[in-house]
Amino acid sequence: MARIQFGTSGWRGVFCEDFTFANVRIVTQAIADYLREAGQGEKGVVVGYDSRFMGEFFARETVRVLAGSGIKSYLCNRDTPTPVIAFELMRRKAGGGINFTASHNPFDFNGLKFSPDWGGPALPETTRDIEDRANAMVGEVCFHEMPMDRAFEAGLVKNIDPRKPYFERLRELIDFEAIGRSGIKVAVNPLYGTGRGYLDALLREAGVDVVTINDHRDPYFGGHPPEPARSHIADFIDLVRGDDAITLGLATDGDADRYGIVDHDGTFIEPNYILALLFDYLLRTKGQRGDVARSVATSQLVDAVARHHGMKVHETPVGFKFIGEFIRDDEILIGGEESAGLTLRGHVPDKDGILACLLVAEMVAVEGKPLTELLADLYRRVGEVYSHRDNLRLGPDIEGNLAQKLASPPSKLAGKTIEKVITIDGFKWVFGDDSWVLFRKSGTEPVVRVYSEAKSADDLARLSKAAAEFVQG
Fold first, then answer.
1. What is the spatial distance between Cα 161 and Cα 271, in angstroms, rounded to a whole number?
2. Are strands 447-454 and 386-393 parallel, antiparallel or unpaired?
3. C-alpha span between 132 and 251 (Å, rounded)
4. What is the model's pTM?
5. Is residue 121 a contact partner of residue 319, using CB atoms and an 8 Å limit?
6. Residues in Cβ contact with 355 at an 8 Å cutoff, skipping those fewer than 6 apart
7. Tens digit of pLDDT for each residue in 135-158?
8. What is the dihedral of CA 262, 268, 270, 276, to 10 degrees?
9. Using CA atoms, how far apart are residues 274 and 158, in angstroms rounded to an integer?
10. Nearest by Cα to 363 from 179, 234, 201, 105
11. Which residue intervals of 218-348 are DSSP H helices?
């Protein structure tokens, strides 16, 4: 069978092929052994799952294996958002968290995400340790397990509802009174995932008129990947566009750690722009101070906001765990990625799509303007920036030669001189006018992700075209 391998956010695989009960037991035993050696086993583990097929059954098997190793589990009582599990792990000062989720991947995937005691996604040195332990056990019956009834009798399992304390924390971070006073009407789309009863419930509690769509559990996610990207939420965009009373559309992905934002007229606002708008709002309107962290693939519009306000930018590899470290160490005010991950100082060091949506609602309520106007205002103050991403499938010949081509870049692309090459994750070519392209190979499929950014839409189109031709030529 294929090697068990953790990616940017856990181990994922196709349901019933490589993601099986046997492999889940093995990975859980590897985590149990890691926790005991690290002296974290006695603190217990928070265990949760998203709304995919068999999630609760995988979670129960994990609990049985942990119990077999003498490690206590705090088992969530229903499918639970990733950020809620992270918050509960930190609140209980547990030794770690195990979450069964494949996030925004299609329905036939599942995944196991491990978070250490500090609450963020496990760093590469941790996942390599767990991988090595797990792969050494593949094909052998070397895990310990305990029947569920005995685990409860021994006090090694406790059922929990983590929603209330998480809600209390969000009430400290978000100005719900301002949202309620504004009189806005909000559409909410949890995409059949774990966000059901979270975002919508908090907004209704604040007195907001909320209309929901896709708010029941469906492991097929309506036939689309549970990703709140423009291409997967046409029904939601149509809903917002078709109701003049709706001010804002807020969507979360399958495990509610990513967000999708739709303006009042049905315009989808890319996460790149949301991160910059929220950073500016926190500094300019809320009077907060602090730096920002973003991945190498994320728009440098946030850099322009930072320069405008005299703040610093920390650039990281792709993967929210690297941004989470800055939150853990209290070094930034906000951190985010172009793939719709975001969190704030004083909150979980992991993506929180619920928090992001609520902060956008607060911003729109307080500023009294739609998002397109807020973005135009921001452009007037810091300059225009336009971003784009292509996913280019590679044939064997192109894939084999791509690394060599990227390591020896041309002097120019689209008539622009390459001034700097950044290689912290992929190959990022920065030009003299601060436009750039990033080539980043997928770790799971023959695809290269090509990110482009420029100061005008026309320039972006030329740059994106030239970058694609470079890859495919």
1. 30
2. antiparallel
3. 37
4. 0.95
5. yes
6. 83, 170, 173, 174, 342, 343, 344, 347
7. 888 877 677 899 999 999 999 999
8. -50
9. 39
10. 179
11. 234-241, 271-284, 301-309, 320-328
